[in-house]
C-alpha cells in the first residue's frame, strides 16, 4: 500500500511542470482587502482560512455536487453514506456538520429539523465558484446569519455573460454506471439592459445498485446494493433587475424534488430494506442591493422556504405493516445589512436578521415547535499598511413555542470574533494571520422535541475556534501559494445521542468536551506554463487530534468518532488547448466508529483516485463539450460510515451543447 | 522556477513523512480461547446497524474472557443485535433480531449447527426471545408470531399467531405464555399475554396485564412474574403475577417496580433491578417469591458501582448473581459476579451491551 502511495505522490510532483488557468470573474465583494495583483486569489490574502474552487476546477473534478467539490478542501471530512442517494454531510476541523452553514447566491439554506444539509443534493453544473470559510467571514454587507456558523460553504452560480448575445441556451446529458441518466437544460435571457433572467433544470435517475464486497470476519461475499434508486428533479431561476447604476433587485427561486430508496446499513444476513424517502424543497427569495460609490452598501433579503419530507418503511412491524412519517418545515426570513466606509482603512458593517422556523409532523404527540430567531451583527474592519484587523460581534436571541409540551427555554447569546493579519513581506507576499471565533449551534428541533428522545433542556453546543497561520504566494514566474495553519477548537456542551433503556430508544444529552488540535498544509500552483500545456496542482494535508476530554469519561483522551487523524487530497489539472485532464486523489486515515479507540471499532484508511477528461470545441454558432469521468479508478472497497459501503469503479460520460 | 519546484517537492515529502507517523493499528492477538470445565457465555447485543453482536467466553479455570468467541469458531460474525440466548440439550439458541435469524450452535464447540433465516417473504420477522421446552425451541418474532423449532431437525415447523410485537415467553405445564408488547404500535401498546396450548398449538386465551408486556419469569410454585414497561413516560413499569394453572392474573405489585429479574429456586429469592428512564439510574433489589415480600432495597452490599444495569442471571450451581453493566452503551460492557450477600466476587470485560448469560459445565 505504502509503495503505491509513494508512486502516486511522485506522479503528482512530476506533474508539476507548468500551467495556466482562467481567472474567474470575481463577483464577490472584496471586503476591503487590497488586491494588488489582478489575479490574486482572495483565498491567498484572507486573514482567516479560506479555500475556493473556480469554475474550471469544478468542471474538471469527477462528480457534480457540492459534496464532490468540498471533499477536496483541506480540513474536510465528508461523511458519506455511500451511493448517489446517500446522505453527504461534512465535518470541518472535527466540528459536527451542524456547525457548517451553506449559502447559495447569498441566501442561506435552512434545516432546523436535523441541522444537517445534504450536500449531495446541491448540483454544481451552473456553479461558478465554491468556497469554504473556516471560522471567520470577512465579507462586508452580508446577512447576520452568514456570520453565525463556525464554517461556511458558499456557492455562487453563474452570472450570465450577455456581452455577445442576448439568448443563451445549453443542454447537457450525463450518463453512466448504475443506470444513471442525468439531463439538464439552461436558458439565459437578456430582456433589456435592465432585466435578465436565467433558468436551470436538472433531472437525475439512477438505480445506484453498485456491487460491493461485504467483509464478514474471514468470509467475503460480493453483493449488490439494493433499494438504492434515486429520481430527482431540480429547477432554479434567477431574475436580475438593474434599477439604476447603484440599485439592483434580484430574485431566486429553487425547486427540488426527489424520491429515493434508503438502502440503510448493510445488515449481515438481512438484505431487505423497504425504506423510502421523498423530499420536496421550495425556496424563494428577493434581494435588493445598493452599492453607493463604494462608500455605502446595503442589502435586503426576503426569503421563504418550504421543505417537505416523507419517510416510509414497508417492512415495519406495526399493525398496518407500514410506517409513514412526514415532516414539513417552513422558514420566513428577513434580513437587512449595511456597510459604510469611513476612511479607506476603516470600514463598518452591520446587519439585523429575523426569521421564523416551524416544523410539523404526523408523529404521535409531536410538539409542533416554532422558533423565532433574532440576530444582530456588527463588524469593524481596519486595514492599513501591513496590518489588517477585523472584529465582529453577533447577538442571537431565540424564542420557541410549542403546541404540545413545554418549549425549550429562551436563549440569548453574544459571540465575538477577531481576526488579525500582518504582512511580513511583499515579494514574495508573506502574511501571518490569527483568528478567534466563538460559535454555538442551537439544538435542532429533533434534538429538542423528537418524541421520547428529544430533550428540551438541551443547551446550545459551544465551539471555540482558534487559528494561527502563515500564507505566502508568488505570482511570477508562476502562481504558487503555500498556506500553513495551526488550529485549536474546543467544543463544550456537545450534543450527543445516548441510548436509554434499550438500544432503540435514544436520548439527547449535553455531554462531552472535545479538544481539537491540528495542522493544515495547503499548496497550490497555477499559471505554470509548459509550452502549450498548462498544469495546475493543488495539495492539501490535515493532521488533527480530536480527543474527548470530558472528565471521568471512560474514553478520556480517545479520538472522537469518525475523525481521521490524517486527511490528504491532491488535484492535478493538465490543460492543453481546450482539453483538460484532471486527476484527483483523496486519502482518509483510519478512524473509529465509536468513542472507544479499540481495534474492533476501527475503520481502516482509504484512498480514492478519480480521473476526468474535459474537452470543449467551438463551432460557428455553438460550442460543444464532452466529459469522461472514471471515479474510484482502483475499485477500492471501503466505507466512510460503518456498514455503508462506497461505490466501486464507475464511468460517466457527459455531452453538452451551448447555443 | 526550479527553486519553487524544489520547495514543492520538499513540502510534498514533508507531507508524506507525516503519513508514516500515524500508524494504523493492527489486530491485537486476542487471548486464545482456553477450554474450561466451567464456562459462562455472555451475549453482547452490540449496537444497532453495526453488525457487532458478539459472544464472550469466560473460562472459570483461568478467569479469561474472550469476546468474539462466535467469530473465532465460525469465521463469520453473529450478526446485528443478538437479543436472547438459551441453552437446551447441548445446543445454544440465539435470536439475532436485526439480522432476522436464529443461530443454533453446539454448546461444547461453539460451532454453528444451523442458521435459520426468519423472513416472511421479504419481510424480516425480527426474532426476539427464545424459550426451550421438551423437544422444541420457541422463538417470539416481532411480526406477531412464535416460531416452533424442532430441536432435532433444527427446522421451523410452524408459526403460531400471537399478539403484536411479542417479546418474552416461557413454557410451563404444557402451556406457552407470550408477552405481547405491541411496542411498534406505540402509543397503542398491547397489554396481553397470549396462552398457547402446547398440545395443539392453539391460543387458549389472552390474559390482560398492563400496557407493553416485556418479560416473563416463572418460579417453582407455578407463578409467572410478568414485567410490563408502561410508556416510558407517565405510565410506569409494573410487576404482575399470572397463575399458570388458573391462567389468571392474580397480583400486581404496588411496592415492587422492576424492569428485569431472575429467581434462585433454592432460596426463593428473586434478584431484580429497577431503572429510571429519565436519569438512567437503577438499583438491584431482592424479594421473596414465596411470601411475595420485598427483602432488600439494595442488594449490592459493597461499593460496586454499576453504571447501566443491563442483564441479570443466576448461576444455579453456586447461587451467585451475575449482573451485566452496559456502561454508557457505546463502550465495552462488564459482567460482575456477586455472592448471595451482594458482595462482588469478580468481574470481567465483555462486548458492547452484554445482556444474556448462559452457564455451562463441560
Helix content of chain A: under 10%
Largest interface: A-B, 68 and 71 residues
Helices and strands of chain A: which structural class? mainly beta
Shape of chain B: globular
Low-confidence stretches of chain A: 1-38
Biggest sheet details of chain B: 4 strands, antiparallel
Number of helices of chain A: 4
Report strand order across the widest sheet of chain B.
3-2-1-30
Number of strands of chain A: 37
What is the residue-mean pLDDT of chain B, rounded to a whole number? Answer: 92
Major β-sheet annotation of chain A: 22 strands, antiparallel, barrel
Bulk shape of chain A: globular
Please report the distance between the alpha carbons of the first and last residues of chain A. 47 Å
Uncertain segments of chain B are: none
Determine the fraction of residues in helical runs of chain B and give it as a percent range.
under 10%
DSSP E strands of chain B, number: 30
CA distance, first residue to last residue of chain B = 77 Å
Q: What is the radius of gyration of chain B computed over CA atoms, rounded to a whole number of angstroms?
A: 23 Å
Rounded Rg of chain A: 24 Å
Overall pLDDT metric of chain A: 89
Amino acid at each position: 500500500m505504502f509503495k503505491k502511495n509513494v508512486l502516486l505522490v511522485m506522479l503528482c510532483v512530476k506533474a508539476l511542470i507548468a500551467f495556466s488557468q482562467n481567472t474567474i470573474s470575481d463577483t464577490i465583494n472584496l471586503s476591503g482587502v487590497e488586491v494588488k495583483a489582478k489575479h490574486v486569489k482572495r483565498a491567498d490574502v484572507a486573514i482567516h482560512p479560506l479555500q475556493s474552487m473556480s469554475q474550471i476546477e469544478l468542471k474538471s473534478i469527477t462528480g457534480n455536487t457540492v459534496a464532490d467539490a468540498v471533499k477536496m478542501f483541506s480540513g474536510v471530512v465528508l461523511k458519506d453514506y455511500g451511493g448517489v442517494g446517500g446522505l453527504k454531510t461534512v465535518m470541518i476541523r472535527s466540528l459536527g456538520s451542524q456547525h457548517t452553514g451553506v449559502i447559495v447566491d447569498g441566501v442561506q439554506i435552512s434545516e432546523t429539523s436535523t441541522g444537517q444539509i445534504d450536500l449531495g443534493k446541491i448540483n454544481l453544473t451552473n456553479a461558478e465558484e465554491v468556497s469554504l470559510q473556516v471560522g471567520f467571514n470577512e465579507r462586508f454587507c452580508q446577512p447576520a446569519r452568514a456570520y453565525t456558523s463556525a464554517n461556511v460553504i458558499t456557492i455562487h452560480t453563474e452570472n450570465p455573460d450577455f456581452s455577445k448575445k442576448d439568448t443563451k441556451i445549453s443542454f447537457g446529458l450525463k450518463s453512466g454506471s448504475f443506470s444513471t441518466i442525468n439531463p439538464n437544460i439552461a436558458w439565459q435571457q437578456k430582456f433589456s439592459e435592465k432585466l435578465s433572467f436565467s433558468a436551470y433544470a436538472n433531472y437525475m435517475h439512477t438505480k445506484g445498485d453498485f456491487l460491493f464486497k461485504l467483509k464478514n470476519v474471514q468470509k467475503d461475499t460480493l453483493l449488490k446494493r439494493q433499494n438504492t434508486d434515486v429520481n430527482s428533479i431540480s429547477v432554479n431561476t434567477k431574475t436580475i433587475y438593474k434599477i439604476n447604476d447603484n440599485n439592483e433587485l434580484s430574485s431566486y427561486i429553487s425547486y427540488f424534488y426527489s424520491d429515493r430508496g434508503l438502502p440503510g446499513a448493510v445488515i449481515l444476513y438481512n438484505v431487505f430494506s423497504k425504506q423510502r424517502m421523498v423530499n420536496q424543497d421550495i425556496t424563494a427569495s428577493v434581494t435588493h442591493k445598493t452599492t453607493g460609490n463604494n462608500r455605502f452598501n446595503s442589502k435586503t433579503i426576503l426569503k421563504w422556504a418550504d421543505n417537505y419530507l416523507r419517510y416510509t418503511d414497508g417492512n415495519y412491524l406495526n399493525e398496518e405493516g407500514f410506517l409513514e412519517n412526514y415532516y414539513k418545515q417552513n422558514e420566513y426570513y428577513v434580513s437587512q445589512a449595511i456597510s459604510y466606509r469611513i476612511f479607506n482603512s476603516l470600514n463598518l458593517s452591520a446587519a439585523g436578521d429575523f426569521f421564523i422556523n416551524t416544523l410539523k409532523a404526523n408523529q404521535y404527540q409531536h410538539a409542533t415547535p416554532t422558533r423565532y430567531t433574532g440576530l444582530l451583527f456588527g463588524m469593524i474592519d481596519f486595514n492599513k499598511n501591513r496590518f489588517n484587523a477585523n472584529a465582529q460581534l453577533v447577538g442571537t436571541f431565540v424564542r420557541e413555542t410549542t403546541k404540545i409540551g413545554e418549549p425549550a427555554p429562551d436563549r440569548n447569546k453574544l459571540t465575538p470574533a477577531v481576526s488579525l493579519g500582518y504582512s511580513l513581506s511583499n515579494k514574495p507576499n508573506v502574511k501571518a494571520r490569527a483568528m478567534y471565533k466563538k460559535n454555538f449551534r442551537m439544538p435542532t428541533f429533533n434534538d429538542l422535541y423528537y418524541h421520547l428522545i428529544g430533550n428540551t433542556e438541551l443547551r446550545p453546543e459551544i465551539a471555540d475556534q482558534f487559528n494561527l497561520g502563515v500564507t505566502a504566494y508568488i505570482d511570477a514566474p508562476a502562481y504558487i501559494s503555500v498556506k500553513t495553519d495551526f488550529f485549536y477548537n474546543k467544543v463544550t456542551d456537545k450534543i450527543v445521542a445516548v441510548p436509554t433503556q434499550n438500544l432503540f430508544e435514544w436520548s439527547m444529552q449535553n455531554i462531552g468536551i472535545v479538544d481539537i488540535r491540528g495542522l493544515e498544509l495547503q499548496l497550490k500552483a497555477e499559471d505554470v506554463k509548459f509550452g502549450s500545456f498548462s498544469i495546475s496542482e493543488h495539495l492539501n494535508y490535515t493532521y488533527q487530534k480530536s480527543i474527548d476530554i470530558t472528565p471521568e469519561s471512560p474514553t478520556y483522551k480517545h479520538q472522537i468518532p469518525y475523525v481521521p487523524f490524517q486527511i490528504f487530497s491532491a488535484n492535478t489539472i493538465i490543460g492543453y488547448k481546450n482539453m483538460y485532464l484532471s486527476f484527483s486523489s483523496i486519502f482518509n486515515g483510519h478512524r473509529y466508529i465509536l468513542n472507544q479507540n479499540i481495534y474492533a471499532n476501527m475503520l481502516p484508511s482509504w484512498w480514492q483516485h478519480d480521473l476526468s477528461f474535459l474537452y470543449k470545441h467551438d463551432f460557428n454558432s455553438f460550442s460543444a463539450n464532452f466529459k469522461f469521468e472514471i471515479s474510484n479508478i482502483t475499485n477500492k472497497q471501503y466505507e466512510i460510515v460503518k456498514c455503508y459501503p462506497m461505490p466501486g469503479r464507475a464511468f460517466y460520460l457527459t455531452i453538452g451543447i451551448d447555443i | 522556477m526550479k527553486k519553487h519546484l524544489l520547495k514543492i517537492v520538499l513540502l510534498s515529502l514533508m507531507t508524506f513523512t507525516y503519513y508514516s507517523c500515524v500508524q494504523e493499528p493492527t489486530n491485537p492477538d486476542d487471548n486464545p480461547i482456553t477450554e474450561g470445565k466451567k464456562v459462562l457465555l455472555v451475549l453482547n447485543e452490540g449496537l444497532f446497524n453495526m453488525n457487532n453482536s458478539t459472544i464472550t467466553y469466560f473460562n472459570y479455570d483461568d478467569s479469561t474472557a474472550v469476546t468474539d468467541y462466535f467469530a473465532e469458531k465460525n469465521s463469520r460474525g453473529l450478526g446485528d443485535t443478538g437479543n436472547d440466548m438459551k441453552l437446551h440439550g447441548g445446543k445454544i439458541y440465539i435470536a439475532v433480531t436485526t439480522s432476522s435469524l436464529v443461530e443454533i450452535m453446539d454448546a461444547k464447540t461453539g460451532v454453528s449447527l444451523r442458521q435459520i433465516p426468519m423472513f416472511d417473504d421479504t419481510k424480516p420477522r425480527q426474532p426476539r426471545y427464545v424459550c426451550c421446552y421438551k423437544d422444541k425451541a420457541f422463538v417470539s418474532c416481532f411480526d406477531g408470531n412464535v416460531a416452533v423449532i424442532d430441536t432435532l431437525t433444527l427446522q421451523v415447523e410452524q408459526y403460531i399467531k400471537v399478539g403484536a410485537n411479542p417479546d418474552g415467553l416461557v413454557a410451563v405445564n404444557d402451556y406457552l405464555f407470550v408477552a405481547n408488547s405491541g411496542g411498534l404500535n406505540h402509543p397503542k401498546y398491547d397489554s396481553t399475554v397470549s396462552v398457547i396450548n402446547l398440545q395443539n398449538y392453539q391460543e387458549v386465551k389472552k390474559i390482560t396485564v398492563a400496557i407493553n408486556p416485556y418479560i416473563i419469569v416463572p418460579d417453582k410454585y407455578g407463578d409467572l412474574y410478568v414485567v410490563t414497561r408502561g410508556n416510558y413516560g407517565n405510565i410506569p413499569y409494573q410487576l404482575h403475577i399470572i397463575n399458570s394453572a388458573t391462567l389468571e392474573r392474580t397480583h400486581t405489585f404496588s411496592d415492587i417496580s422492576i424492569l428485569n429479574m431472575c429467581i434462585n429456586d433454592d432460596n426463593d429469592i428473586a434478584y431484580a433491578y429497577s431503572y429510571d428512564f429519565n436519569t438512567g439510574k437503577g438499583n438491584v433489589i431482592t424479594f421473596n417469591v414465596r411470601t411475595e415480600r420485598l427483602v432488600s432495597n439494595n442488594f449490592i452490599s459493597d461499593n460496586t458501582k454499576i453504571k447501566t444495569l443491563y442483564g441479570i442471571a443466576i448461576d444455579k450451581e453456586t447461587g451467585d448473581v451475575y449482573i451485566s453493566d452496559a456502561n454508557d452503551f457505546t463502550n465495552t460492557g462488564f459482567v460482575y459476579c456477586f455472592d448471595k450477600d451482594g458482595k462482588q466476587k469478580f468481574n470481567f470485560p465483555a462486548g458492547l451491551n452484554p445482556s444474556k448469560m448462559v452457564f455451562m459445565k463441560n
